[in-house]
Specification:
This protein is mainly alpha-helical and 242 residues long. The protein has one domain. Helices cover 63% and strands 5% of the residues. The chain has 7 helices and 4 strands, in the order ββααααββααα. Helix 4 runs antiparallel to helix 5 and helix 4 runs parallel beside helix 6. The longest helix has 26 residues. It starts with a strand and ends with a helix.
């Protein structure tokens, strides 16, 4: 893999950090475009963008430290995010909480806004997973499939689960954009995005290398089951309410 994209004297551009930054830039650009298109734009949106970047990274790293503390050599490594180690579900939880609080405080239409930002979030995820591939983290188990990849310092050919995730997310992005203009009620696109994500994440964990926890499931699978139940309930609740 290529954990360092460019090295020039004391300057090192890490692949993981580069793609995470690119994911935020592209995702926010899509957010702003759709927010303008659907008449939700205000100058306050830029304040929200800054808060989302900060708290998404904090949440993603916090979940990683909590669930994978044993992977860290010392306390200070908990802050070295450029080496990899972000749990998407943690970033998603913190991100959604930040957006929800912001919308309530600023009195911006709640579920309509969530619908509009969902495609951009998915696109950002697709780009971020490419960074995982270059970094060599979030890899899959040993396999004999023709497209298997050899990761440095790991034995055997393995599933490129990072690229699977990225490909699925790009498809989800297109599907969500299509449905955004055809939605039947506010909150529908957001719920569909959550349902798709939790289903995909649950099943891809079977070919990813992650420690098993309760019921021989990984932490991501446990969170996905909980997230799927909540998102399905929310979908039907919002549809009935509308």
């Amino acid at each position: 893999m290529y954990p360092t994209l460019l090295s020039w004297g004391p300057i090192n551009i890490h692949a993981y950090g580069f793609f995470v930054a690119l994911a935020f830039i592209v995702g926010i650009a899509v957010h702003i475009h759709l927010i303008r298109k659907y008449g939700l734009y205000t100058e306050k949106v830029w304040d929200l963008a800054a808060l989302v970047i900060i708290f998404s990274i904090v949440g993603a790293r916090f979940f990683y430290v909590v669930f994978f503390w044993g992977n860290l050599n010392n306390f200070w490594e908990a802050f070295m995010i450029w080496r990899g180690g972000l749990v998407l579900q943690g970033g998603l939880v913190f991100c959604l909480a930040t957006v929800a609080i912001f919308l309530i405080v600023k009195k911006i239409p709640f579920w309509k806004f969530f619908d509009v930002i969902t495609p951009g979030m998915v696109l950002g995820y697709a780009i971020g997973r490419i960074g995982c591939f270059f970094n060599g983290c979030c890899y899959g188990c040993v396999t004999n499939v023709p497209w298997a990849v050899k990761f440095p310092y790991l034995s055997g050919m393995r599933h490129p689960t990072q690229l699977y995730a990225s490909g699925i997310a790009f498809i989800m992005f297109i599907v969500l954009l299509f449905w955004l203009g055809k939605k039947k009620f506010d909150g529908q696109i957001f719920c569909i995005g959550l349902i798709y994500y939790n289903i995909y994440r649950f099943f891809i964990e079977f070919i990813r290398v992650n420690p098993k926890m309760l019921f021989n499931l990984t932490s991501a699978q446990i969170i996905s089951v909980i997230g799927l139940v909540i998102s399905i309930w929310l979908y039907f609740y919002l549809r009935k309410k509308s």
